[in-house]
Amino acid sequence: MTVDRTEALEMHRKAQGKIKLSPSVAIRTKRDISLAYLQGGAIAAGEIFKERDLAYEYTGKDNRLAIVSNGTSVLGLGNYGPEAALPMIEGKCLLYKKFGDIDAIPLCINPSEPERIMDFCRMLSPTFGAINVEDIKSPMDFNIVKTLRKELDIPIFGDDMHCSSVVILGSLINALKVVEKELSTVKIVIVGAGTSAIATAELMLYGGATNIVMLNRKGIVSSDMEELSGVQRHILDQLNPEGLRGGLKEAVKGADVLIGLTGQIGAFGVDEVRSMKSRAIVFPLGRPEPEMDPLEAKEAGAEVVGCGIVEGINTMPNLKVFPGITRGLLDVRATGLNFNVLMKAAKEYADNVDPRRLSADHITPHMFSDELTPRIAEAVAQSCISEGLARLTPAPHEVLERTWNRLFGGYSARY
Q: Which residue segment(s) compose the domain that 34 sits in?
């Protein structure tokens, strides 16, 4: 989709921010003020002082998400800084509210040093039910999330890490059904070695993939490369089991799946697709523009194609899952998340496509599917309970019904 520059700027100028705060308590009398602020607030503070987790009961912590960014990796743009990151982060907050009824707050900050960013997140943790680390360059974002997960008792995650990997794996599960292949036997080539690529490879390996080849700008990622990050080296032993060397041409020959996570137009093309096995799957997921035109991939022989933007064939933006994942985490007051939780989310995402309608051109749920967020929230919530990551243990289907009620009013008659 082409967006008109003038129209986009005018929308932002008129809105002056895509989210706003509004009161949840009516203030009409002096008594209302006393209940909400002075005496009443002091009473609630006293209870929380005695039991810290009562902050979830007496404040908005249980529905509040911090989105923290220093703007060093703004989507498709690069290091634009915190002020320029605001339109993107505000937009994400808007989507959290629209699709998950989550009170997401944009917090764009100056520090470039990871320790200062982590200190900021540590200071935030009493106020928020979860923290989303967003648009921070790789591998800094990975290291921040990994460190804070060990320290804080709320979920710390990144959309480009965890939510993108869930969408990609969930879509691949359905694509493999269409082409009648198994995750454990296919050869998967991932072009890109940044945050999304590494997180996707990790989740696929956890889910049963055995043959993943990853490429960076210098070629196939291998142990003889000098400029690999610690995160890349950590996963190195699980990649490239055939010991391939060279570039994209060598990697993609005979591959079953080709995934682009570079954001570089022309990163691969018709020749690469034609060198793949029959019934190939091609996901050029670069944003804001894909590595190649998905239609060209189809014409070159790929049976299933997808794209990472909101319009096209089999659209796979992480917007489809981040509201549901976060809703599920918040509704059980989760202390964290792990691979099992993400796997449950990926499988629920895949299952949201009616098997009777599953086809090469329909492997992903519709963007505006009413059921998607409630079902993913339910799957995440129940998985957190099973994994011992939940402070609350709602009954089966309770989170689904509550989420449906939040978003649409009333209750779903379908479950």
A: 5-157
